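Hey L., structure's done. Input below.
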Amino acid sequence: MTVESSHISRRRFLHSLGLAVPAIAGLPLASMGSAVRGPVTLAPDLRFISKELPLRRRHEWARVQPNPDRLRPATAAGYHRITLHHAGMDVIRSTSESAVVSCLDGVLGGHLQRRFGDVGYHFLIDYAGRVWEGRSLAYWGAHVSGHNEHNVGIVLLGNFERQRASRAQIQSMQKLVGLVRDHYNIQPGAIYGHIDLGRTLCPGRYLYPQVQRLNQMA
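Output:
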């Protein structure tokens, strides 16, 4: 796919979520979190991923810091499962980094408006197959109601009820899940689609079979 086959602006993405552009009370997005860009000091060592996959760290794309007061610290017991999602709104085939950052900004802004302490997913994968760090693994995610503890959340950008994931996305998803599974010693059968844990179509009819295959690859 060539660069920018379907650019989605930050404004359009937020409106597709049914949200006002963070001018909720005339406030810019930066006022909804703490401070502007800077390294996330609470992030754990992710070299087990970055040695194998290109990884964009959170501070490279996010304009606001997370709010630790609204986050639940992960326990020493670590992670026992992985859940896969799709963003689920517009069809997204953008591959330019600027377009992707706009989409990520929309996801983060939507979650902040719902008073999350940060984006709900730990990792996000774009149509080009790039992996972006979301919420620090130092905290439980906010991606499956009632099942967030010990659960790594990974979302693929796109709507896989209406489109198919790119080959690059699938390859990165497989690689990332394998790395996380090995690092945390996650057992076979503990990789889920959101649909397995809640009343939803997520991660979409075109992606869910790929998620099911991940358990067979364990």
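DSSP finds five helices and six strands in the chain. The radius of gyration is 16 Å.

-- N.
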